[in-house]
Amino acid sequence: MDSGLENVIAAETVLSRVDGQKGELVVRGREIEDIAASMTFEDVLHLLWDGFFDDLPAVDALTVRLGEARVRAFSKIKTIVPVLKRESSLEAIRTALSLTSDGNDLDSALDAVAHVLVATAVVGRVSKNQELIEPSATRGHAEDLIYMLSGKKASPELVAGANSYLVTVADHGLNASTFTARVVASTQAGLGSAVIAGFCALKGPLHGGAPGPVLDMLDSIGTVENAKNWCENALENGDRLMGFGHRVYKIKDPRADALKTASSKISGSIGRLNFARQVEEIIIETLVEKKPDRVLETNVEYYTAVLLEALNIDRSLFTGVFGCGRSAGWVAHSKEQIATRRIVRPKSVYVGPNPS
Ligand code: ACO
Fold first, then answer.
1. Tell me: the pLDDT tens digits for 316-329?
2. Is 178 within 8 Å of 172 (Cβ atoms)?
3. Which residues line ligand 1 (CB under 6 A)?
């Protein structure tokens, strides 16, 4: 019995391989660093979904179909704005997602992915009492996210940064939300239900909620000059430095490298990118001095936090934006699970009382 299932292999997948010893993430045969540097969200959708839908069109047509799905999602989600006003951001996104429909075809898949993004953007506006901004079928997914949140056309460098983020988190082996989506898909509940379930698992702070504390730490450090002292004190108090270390990646987290490269293409004057790069160096140097027996490198959450902040996305929406990227993987894994024609049904060991 292994309550965290760490040593249980529960699926065969062609989608992604996480190698913690080598510090490698491969998605359908391509290194994550390469994907983050060169692919749009729609390219990655095509890469992940290829072979799982008979009618998957080329990327250009898929981009238009996804845009049309955002427009359909918006027309439904805008009707429940009063309900979304009464809930926290994550609960509101979850509520809005429930309007997606079930089915196992391409339109259902696109609707589910579109709902995550439109729900996140609408909730972002509603939470600030701002007017809703309609999606556009002609924009790319990443660009439309920024537009629907801010009402402004983003610069190409920010759109590239948003694309890099969405594709970097699109798939990551059998993590908790992906496993959840596969379990739900295995019952033939439909892709909408599988994506909603994936989001519900992601919403927990142990899975999708770590970047917020990175920004809290940067707030607390305040200035580059203060960083060394701050880190030494934190480590002496036994505190963890947020955005460093990883349970699986023992050498480096390749997603951190991918996002660092993506953020280096954005002007350092935007957000706290320059500050974060300088503080990262000081943190690594301090960890080497104070924890010489451990390899504690930057993890994905550090550059997620500074990149999403540079994109002017509110902390309360970080998990929703994570879901916008990961929904691509939830759908692909769900289709892969459905193709096995097996419901997921593990066993448990009864440790309760016996009948007297
Ligand atoms: N800062 C300071 N010390 C650390 C850190 C850190 N970020 N991470 C690990 N350590 C130290 C621990 O104090 C411990 O030291 P000790 O043996 O001297 O007591 C040692 O390294 C091992 O700690 P574990 O918790 O056993 O290491 P593990 O690899 O299992 O931890 C974890 C992984 C939980 C991510 C940890 O590195 C951590 O807490 N990091 C900070 C929080 C964070 O960034 N979370 C996001 C992770 S990425 C993701 O989940 C997608």
1. 999 999 999 999 99
2. yes
3. 210, 240-247, 291, 294, 296, 299-301
| Contacts of residue 221, Cβ cutoff 8 Å, sequence gap at least 6 | 227, 230, 231, 279
Q: Which helix (H) or strand (E) holds 103?
A: none
- Between the CA of 235 and the centroid of ligand 1 the distance, in Å, is 12
Tokens encoding 307? 């990149």
Q: What is the whole-number distance in angstroms between the Cα of residue 190 and the centre of ligand 1?
A: 37
Q: How far is CA 204 from CA 20, 100, 289, 336, in A?
A: 23, 21, 33, 25
CA-based nearest residue to 210, from 299, 136, 289? 299
Residue at 122: amino acid letter? V
Distance CA 60, CA 115 (A): 20
Q: Which two tokens stand for residue 341?
A: 């024609």
Residue 1: the pLDDT is: 86
What whole-number distance in Å separates Cα of residue 225 and Cα of residue 220? Answer: 12
pLDDT at 210: 67
User: Is 115 an annotated catalytic residue?
Assistant: no
- The per-residue pLDDT for range 151-187, each reduced to its tens digit, is 999 999 999 999 999 999 999 999 999 999 999 999 9
Half-sphere exposure (CA, 13 Å, Cβ side) for 58? 1
- Buried residues in 75-91 as b, exposed as e (16+ CB within 10 A): ebbeebeeebeebebbe
Is residue 288 within 8 Å of residue 302, measured between CB atoms? no
Q: How far apart are CA 124 and CA 133, in angstroms?
A: 11
In angstroms, the CA 170 to CA 186 distance is: 21
Q: Which residues of the chain have pLDDT under 70?
A: 210
The amino acid present at 201, given as its one-letter code, is: A
- Cα separation, 191 vs 116, whole angstroms: 13
